[in-house]
Amino acid sequence: MAGGGFASSSNETVFEARITGAVILSCIMAATGGLMFGYDIGISGGVTAMPSFLAEFFPDIYKRVQVPAAESNYCKYDNQKLQLFTSSLYLAALVASMVASPVTRQLGRKQTMLLAGVVFIVGTVLSALAGNLFLLILGRILLGCGVGFANQAVPVFLSEIAPTRIRGALNILFQLNITIGIFIANLVNWKTAQIAGGYGWRISLAGAGVPAVMLTIGSLIVDDTPNSLIERGFEEQGKTVLRRIRGVENIEPEFEDILRASKVAKEVKSPFKDLMKSHNRPPLIIAICMQVFQQMTGINAIMFYAPVLFSTIGFHNDASLYSSVITGAVNVLSTLVSVYFVDKAGRRMLLIEACVQMFISQIIIGVVLGMKLQDHSDSLSKGLGLLVVIMVCTFVASFAWSWGPLGWLIPSETFPLETRSAGQSVTVFTNMLFTFIVAQGFLSMLCFLKFGIFLFFSAWILIMAFFTVFLIPETKNVPIEDMADKVWRQHWFWNKYM
User: What angle do CA 14, 20, 24 make, to 5 degrees?
Assistant: First the structure.
């Protein structure tokens, strides 16, 4: 099974490649790590909106929600333990990401994905069967360890195995699967909330095991990347895999390119220390800033707590879960836009356009809530409630075709081989750190800032726009091992570090 051939230039070399079945299968199987991550992002918000779940683990919040007039609309769900239920996963992922870097480098991308799947399965079982808050949080911590390993290995795997010309589209399979996972989780929550007996939340949490099993099986089937095999000394095996995934006989130019990068990588004894060197500063700063900005758009505040947010503005429980299904569907469809355009229009255009769209959406949401939703009013009018849902969807759409996928793609393709695992580890660490901060603080911030929280996030989006215009370079159609020469040395600002 093979598609049309193409060649991508790399200074004096030409890398021939066909879109082979081996590449497509490997990328689909690896991207199920995104499905696993996305399902967990989506499931936690819906579960925390279920009365039966609140009654069992958070009785104080359950009582508060049952008497709406007794508490400010913005403060109904303000509870540090409830926020810890969501955020503990990301705190664990943050720690695991640092351990995942040497594991990914020494054992390979394939074995790291296998480990991620197995740990996630154990965490799923513990979460679904939990009888008290301690076991529930422990299960979330194990899920976080699985996420940390998967988010470390999967984007690097996808960038290394994909032909240059379609690297962006195939890498975005990871983000596409995150959005599909969120959408499926929203659907599951919507249905399980209607189950009589109050155990629907257990089914929702148990569902996370499905993508984890898919990733585990997939990691047993696929080959490791040629880059990883060659870096670990398996040159002939790496060459064989490279020939298989490229579908052509003339793989010598690309093989030699990877071999040169591997020799440089072997000279680096401490990748994290090497990250601090001047020539690695551009991709490191870009990677860190993109993760901070990705979270400070407020996207995960909306995705984690969408049902809670919609309940806050007056939607009933079923309606709030249904609204989350709509935003989840928008998320999936909009990510497909990125798959189509990322290797055509480029990375920068998508990032800049999205900043404008997200800024306008957040401002409108903040203004509407500020003018019409008071602390103890029952809800927005039907028309204004619909406007808020539309603006949330507009915001989610723009994020889904830009900062969502590109926040993972650009860091995974810009680090040199010798610091790629370490760079990805810092990327995941930063992402999880700020995901944890947003998850742990959002409900308290909503209570304190009220509608102003949307204006807070919009201010960050304005900063992101200026950063993108001046400091994020275009990386489309650049071979992954040639970023230093073709991107950083050509950039008006970053070239001084090279």
Answer: 115
Q: Give the DSSP H or E segment for 9.
A: strand 2-10
Phi/psi at 223 (nearest 5 deg)?
A: -85, 155
Whole-angstrom distance, CA of residue 158 vs CA of residue 278 = 27
Mean of pLDDT values over 234-243: 90
Contact 141, 436 (CB under 8 A): no
DSSP 473: P
Degrees, nearest 5: CA angle 231-233-239: 80
Q: Residue 384: exposed, middle, or buried by beta-carbon count in 10 A (0-12, 13-18, 19+)?
A: middle
Closest CA to 216 of 124, 293, 282: 124
pLDDT digits (tens, 9 = 90+) for 61-89: 788 777 655 556 667 667 788 888 888 88
pLDDT digits (tens, 9 = 90+) for 131-149: 899 999 999 999 999 998 9
Amino acid at 480: I
Query: Is 84:107 a contact under the CB 8 Å cutoff?
Result: no
pLDDT at 162: 82
- Do 178 and 35 form a contact (C-beta atoms < 8 A)? yes
CATH architecture of 11-497: Up-down Bundle (1.20)
- 108 backbone φψ class: left, alpha, beta (φ>0; ψ -120 to 50): left
CB of 193 closer than 8 Å to CB of 48? no
Q: What is the Cα 248 distance to its own chain's centre?
A: 33
CB contact at 8 A, 311 and 446: no
Q: Considering all CA atoms of the chain, what is the largest pairwise distance in Å, rounded to the nearest integer? A: 72
Neighbours of 470 (CB within 10 A): 9
Question: How would you class 492 by CB atoms within 10 Å of its CB: exposed for 0-12, middle for 13-18, buried for 19 or more?
Answer: exposed
Closest CA to 180 of 404, 390, 15: 404
Q: What is the DSSP string of 265-281?
A: HHH-S-HHHHHTSGGGH
Domain ranges of the chain: 11-497
How large is the C-alpha radius of gyration of the chain?
Answer: 22
Mean pLDDT across the chain, nearest whole number? 84
In the prediction, which pLDDT does 445 show? 84
**Which of 230, 261, 281, 260 shows the shortest CA–CA distance to 423?**
281
Distance from C-alpha of 165 to C-alpha of 85, rounded to nearest angstrom? 41
Backbone dihedral angles phi then psi of residue 11, each to the nearest 5 degrees: 55, -105
How far apart, in Å, are the Cα atoms of 112 and each of 124, 180, 228, 233, 407?
A: 18, 23, 12, 18, 21
CA–CA separation, 221 and 29 (whole Å) = 9
CA separation for the pair 86, 91 (Å, rounded): 10
Beta bridge partner(s), residue 8: 15
Query: 33-47 burial, b if ≥16 CB within 10 A, otherwise e?
Result: bbbbbbbbbbbbbbb
